[in-house]
Fold:
Amino acid sequence: MVKKVCVLTSGGDAPGMNACVRAVVRAGLKSGLEMFVVYEGYKGLVEGNIVQVDRNFVSDIINRGGTILHSARLPEFKDEAVRRVAVDNLNRLGIDGLVVIGGDGSYMGAKKLTEMGVRTVGLPGTIDNDIASTDETIGFDTCLNTICECVDKIRDTTTSHQRCTFIEVMGNRCGDLALYSGIAEGVEMIITNDHPIPEDEIISTLLRLRDGKKKHSLVIVSEKVFPDIHAFAKKVTQLTGIESRAEVLGHLQRGGSPSARDRILSTEYGVHAIEALLDGESGICIGIINGKFVHYDILEALDLPKNKHIELMKMIDLVNR
Ligand code: ADP
Ligand code: F6P
Structure:
């Protein structure tokens, strides 16, 4: 039975991470556990940046974006000798449970710590929604709303000038942010790594739209589809005569106060993590599938195929273009 548990945030930050840290700490304390936090993810674990906390430590953070624990990337964590230092730091403090809030890379780190005797639970914290073992990651909803806010503004000026604007959104190699924001904004085209659109089809679609009554177009594109979206927009201008621009939304997508939905989801995830540790589970990650919280072995989770949203793409073809 675990007695001392710590929590860390790792990989790219996501709105809702703070709400999740709060829930882990509060649920742990209420269950009679001693609770600790690690600053700077696995880097802090290796450097021994671990602090015991009380319930007040997590007051007034439920609404805050980013992560008060800071996040870091430590590629060296793949090295067993480096992880051994982290495990020794945990053992020295008698910490026997670890909650990792992060993406699939962070899950891999957690799995490897499990193999070295640490009881771990992974929670999906990333705006990308690229973890197959859950329908929704912490931060996805807020990010989606942020993108929509931006696209609403870009739409105003795109319409005024009768241009075409290509908007590049984050997601790593996952198209969910592009897909869902594209549906919510009713844009003319959505281009993702899973569903690329050939250049000649992009051009012919824009020309067809221009020849109809609509004189402007919005196109949402996942990052990593075009090496240089600004260069692509210039090329479209040259080939079509339609004045085109590109906007890369960038890191503003990761910021901001979490949506109510993300705060609630993060709180639920945090409580489930403590319950799982108290039930003696380890090396697992928690997800929400069809509205139900589910537990997966981390390796099994990382092997699951990601939903390519074939049905949604058909719907988009019917409605958007
Ligand atoms: P995310 O968790 O958002 O996917 P990263 O892929 O950057 O972000 O992973 C976060 C951290 O997890 C890395 O900086 C590294 O410390 C750790 N990590 C990633 N992959 C592994 C691995 N194969 N083994 C051990 N640790 C890993
Ligand atoms: O994983 C979150 C994410 O924002 C991705 O969407 C993006 O590809 C990456 O992180 C950017 O990483 P960094 O903040 O290190 O530039």
Observations:
- The mean pLDDT is 96.
- The radius of gyration is 22 Å.
- Residues 140-161 form the longest helix (22 residues).
- The chain has two domains: 4-139+258-304, 140-254.
